[in-house]
Design goal:
The complex is a heterodimer of chains A (319) and B (576). Chain A has 319 residues and is α+β, with helices and mostly antiparallel strands. Chain A is built from 13 helices and seven strands. In chain A, a hairpin with a 2-residue loop joins strand 3 and strand 4. In chain A, helix 6 crosses helix 9. The relative contact order of chain B is 0.17. The longest helix of chain B is centred in the C-terminal third of the chain and has 25 residues. In chain B, helix 13 runs antiparallel to helix 14. The radius of gyration of chain B is 23 Å and the shape is globular. The model of chain B has no long low-confidence stretch (mean pLDDT 96). Chain B contains 15 helices and 24 strands. Classes of the chains: A alpha+beta (319), B alpha/beta (576). At the A-B interface, helix 1, helix 3 and helix 4 of A face helix 3, helix 4, helix 9 and helix 14 of B.
């Protein structure tokens, strides 16, 4: 079949302005997008830059967008993208500095962030010389998380990274999970401290896009939630968002509805003078518009006792 | 100029293991890992089935050694094999402590499975993505050391040697095209094999024999290059590997009549449950030949990508397949649209591994001061004429670590290289690249055309079955291609991510490696292990129980030989 690839081009040594090159290529039914790219490079245009290594979906190197959908060029069958039109658009991943054509800056995008979560095992010094005895179910969970290709598709799908490029992102935080939940690792608390820093677990908005995008079914969003749960469990709850969570739940549990004034104060932290000062203008405006009654009272709602019971039941079950 | 104590070229299993071994020796040492791809894109990720070591009381070091030597058709150096076997278990346990998620038995111990040519279950695995998980564990651990610097996406073009010693490397920073001199007291080559000299291979596109060719050009001989392993079970068309683990778990090979044909070739009798070293658990070289003979008898299937047979896993059941071979299921459905739970998988032999490589001793030391090699790049030799499945990942670990430690010891006694001298050498290298590629005018030949013709010549002359006239023609063609390569056309003159330049450099290296393979094969007038000649069908210990050494000369390889070290296992007929 005859396919027209419309490929994103950018040459930093020329004007650096993005454009597109069109290539018409004859490919067989089974061909992948990478087959098309290799054919273009071999037969039509040697100057086209893209990355590829294993060429069979193991290594994550050829991640790009095909008709705006992020995937691996080496596993994306051309036929799946040409049902409606024999044209295929190829672009680098979104929101990442492009170096040339389909080549983008992996370091800034992902590798540096993965290094930031200290991605190595810190075993107990007193551990045995021989193998650790561990159930395969534990290993199976780690194998699942470790089956991450470092392909960046979860980061590509993330809705936080486009507004905050410094967010660690689902790939790095999933890597943190891999160590937090390894029974051989003894750096658990220190790891949670790293993960809870600003730009870490609490900046995730759990939109589940990362889980939707992951080609390995690793479910990065759920992994981030698991780290948060663990942080709560061991009492690492000092980050503002964690306090916000705690206060929100406590308020509803006690009164049956949200106490917004208390939420604001407790989220900032009662000893955080600077943070509390920042609330004053908002509080003043609220009072001026009659939205903060004086005296500030927060009565229980009818049925609050039943809501409390629901909370307590949930807490018992979680234990 | 960058300066380090130890330079690793390649960031796969052997390279990272060597880097960690060196870093562990002293935090004062500075170590550089220079790789043309990010380490996690290295080909070690593709290894599936497992990694062998004596981990159980039912096994013994002698038994593993014997299986390896027998599998190698007695071409392995037995002293090296003994060292290898002895250090293997420690390496696997070390990896466990670094976080490798090995599959476990019910009692919590690391599981072992059967593999081809092995007398007992001794192949440890992490489901069927063993290399992937090993590389993960090594990559993660390597980041712990502040004294390991990484040069990701730097393409090493040449070793820099002066006064008979390696002093560093010249490498192109692919991001900006600058050629950098990286000074080091010792250099360890860990660039893998060169399966891409063949058209149909399990090997990643990056496996172009760079390290082998660089050593060869620096005057180091390549050893036993004629031994190229075909893996019997690759997917037709793509060459994607279906792990030997699938046969270790009990898979069957069947011809087009549904007959388990291996019983006709002395590997029987067929049994329902797998028996070590028999039938589907025979070694790879023999199984690949059996396939070709079935083809000759007209008993294979014909498809759009040539002849194939069936690998039948249906009798294993969905549960075993999901637990032990999930990736096989995924690959089969993704690439050939087949669910192995319900249908057999089409498979055929495919180029997989090079037993030969840079001539080294058992410390990874090559006959050029300061140069080391480990992993598939190197030929120690423990694999001889045919490697047993699951020995190669272990080899990366054992000899990666040994080379790392040996290089540290060597470097400690060396003074710092002269930066002036190195910069001069790098300038020479820059001039060579300019002359040959970047500033060359004219040029008519296309990289893709020469590469394709080289691959075809290799398949025609140096495939599973070889004979004199075919090999001679291949040698001749390779000479002509080398000539034509000097007339290569380079259109991309850019500095940033010039992938045409790297493709040209890779082809340049591959042509050297291909020639070494073809000439070594032509000169070995016997059949042994993976090297099978129709004109010399018998093994000839009297004349050829010796390693081939190919030396580079302007007129092509010069071949001489080296004795094989035999200690406790006298050569005998290799029958399974």
């Amino acid at each position: 079949m005859q396919i027209t690839f419309k490929v994103y081009r950018k040459d930093p040594e020329k004007d650096g302005k993005p454009g597109r090159s069109n290539y018409s290529v004859e490919l067989d039914e089974e061909a992948t997008v990478l087959d098309g790219l290799l054919k273009i490079r071999d037969e039509m245009d040697d100057t086209l830059a893209f990355r590829a290594s294993c060429a069979r979906g193991y290594c994550g190197e050829c991640t790009m967008r095909v008709n705006y959908k992020a995937c691996f060029a080496c596993t994306a069958k051309v036929s799946a993208f040409t049902k409606k039109s024999p044209e295929i658009l190829l672009d680098p991943l979104r929101n990442i500095p492009v170096i040339k054509d389909l080549v983008f800056d992996w370091d800034a995008f992902m590798w540096n962030k993965i290094t930031a979560v200290k991605p190595w095992l810190e075993p107990d010094e007193s551990s045995t010389n021989g193998e650790n005895l561990l159930p395969d179910s534990t290993m199976a969970d780690l194998r699942k998380v470790m089956s991450c290709y470092y392909c960046g598709l979860c980061d590509e799908g993330c809705t936080v990274l486009p507004v905050d490029f410094d967010f660690l992102g689902p790939a790095a935080l999933t890597k943190a999970y891999r160590f937090v939940f390894d029974p051989r690792d003894k750096a658990g608390r220190e790891r949670l401290k790293i993960a809870e820093k600003p730009k870490g677990i609490w900046d995730c908005v759990h939109c589940f896009e990362a889980s939707e995008h992951c080609p390995r079914g690793i479910a990065p969003t759920e992994r981030i939630i698991s780290i948060r749960d663990k942080a709560f469990k061991v009492g690492i709850t000092n980050e503002k968002v964690a306090r916000h969570h705690t206060s929100f739940a406590a308020s509803v549990k006690e009164s049956g509805w949200l106490d917004e004034g208390r939420l604001a104060l407790e989220s900032e932290g009662l000893t955080n003078i600077k943070g509390l000062m920042k609330l004053l203008p908002t509080a003043a405006r609220a009072m001026a518009r009659g939205k903060a009654p004086i005296p500030y009272l927060h009565p229980k709602r009818p049925g609050a006792e039943q809501i409390k019971k629901i909370f307590e039941k949930g807490e018992r079950e979680k234990k | 100029m960058f300066t380090h104590d130890i330079i690793l070229i390649g960031g796969g299993g052997a390279g990272l293991r060597a880097a960690i071994a060196a870093a562990e020796q002293s935090s004062k040492l500075s170590i550089a890992v220079v790789s043309k791809v990010y380490p996690m894109r290295s080909h070690t990720v593709s290894a599936e089935g497992g990694t062998a070591a004596v981990m159980r009381d039912t096994d013994s070091l002698d038994l593993h050694a014997k299986d390896t030597i027998f599998g190698a058709d007695f071409m392995a150096d037995q002293d090296a094999v003994e060292v290898f076997i002895k250090e293997a278990p420690g390496e696997l346990i070390q990896l466990e402590h670094w976080g490798c998620p090995w599959s476990r038995d019910a009692d919590g111990r690391v599981s072992v499975r059967a593999f081809g040519g092995m007398s007992v279950d001794r192949t440890c695995f992490a489901a069927d993505k063993t290399g992937f998980h090993m590389l993960h564990a090594l990559f993660q651990t390597s980041q712990k050391y502040d004294n390991i610097a990484r040069y990701d996406e730097f393409y090493v073009t040449s070793l820099l040697a002066d006064d008979g010693k390696v002093r560093g490397v010249a490498a192109i920073n692919i991001y900006n095209g600058r050629l950098e001199a990286i000074a080091g007291k010792a250099v360890i080559l860990c660039t893998g094999g060169g399966g891409r000299i063949f058209p149909f291979t399990t090997n990643a596109a990056i496996k172009t024999g760079d390290g082998m060719a660089m050593a060869y050009r620096a005057g180091v001989p390549l050893k036993d290059m004629e031994f190229v392993q075909y893996h019997p079970t690759g997917l037709p068309g793509t060459g994607i590997l279906i792990t030997e683990g699938s046969r270790g778990e009990g898979g069957w090979l069947k011809n087009k009549d549904g007959y388990r044909y291996l019983q006709d070739y002395g590997l029987g009798p067929p049994t329902d449950t797998p028996v070590h070293r028999k039938m589907e658990l025979g070694p790879r070289d023999i199984l690949s030949r059996c396939h070709m003979q079935e083809y000759a008898k007209g008993r294979t299937f014909e498809g759009p990508y040539g002849h194939y047979v069936h690998l039948d896993l249906r009798h294993l059941g969905e549960e075993v397949i999901n637990k032990k071979l999930p990736f096989v299921r995924e690959l089969a459905s993704k690439y050939v649209g087949i669910d192995p739970v319900y249908e057999p998988i089409p498979v055929r032999p495919v180029v997989h591994y090079m037993m030969g490589g840079v001539h080294t001793d058992m410390n990874g030391s090559a006959p050029l001061e300061g140069l080391y090699a480990a992993g598939e790049t190197a030929c120690v030799s423990i694999n001889g004429a045919n490697r047993l499945g699951s020995n190669s990942l272990t080899e990366c670990l054992v000899f990666g670590a040994r080379a790392g430690r040996a290089a540290v010891q060597y470097a400690a006694a060396q003074g710092a290289p002269s930066s002036q001298r190195l910069e001069a050498l790098a300038r020479d290298e820059q001039q060579r690249l300019d002359r040959q590629f970047l500033r060359k005018e004219g040029g008519k030949e296309k990289i893709a055309v020469i590469r394709e013709e080289m691959q075809k010549a290799m398949e025609d002359g140096a495939g599973i079955y070889r004979k004199e006239e075919d090999m001679k023609r291949t040698c001749q063609l390779l000479r002509e291609l080398r000539e034509r390569f000097s007339n290569i056309a380079i259109e991309d003159r850019g500095d940033v991510f010039n992938t045409q330049l790297t493709a040209a450099l890779e082809l340049d290296f591959m042509l050297d490696v291909a020639e070494a393979v073809a000439h070594s094969a032509l000169n070995r007038k016997e059949s042994r292990g993976s090297h099978t000649r129709t004109d010399f069908p018998k093994r000839d210990d009297e004349n050829f129980l010796k390693h081939t050494l190919a030396h580079r000369t302007p007129d092509g390889p010069r071949i001489d030989y080296l004795p094989v070290t035999i200690t406790r296992w006298q050569p005998e007929e290799r029958k399974y």
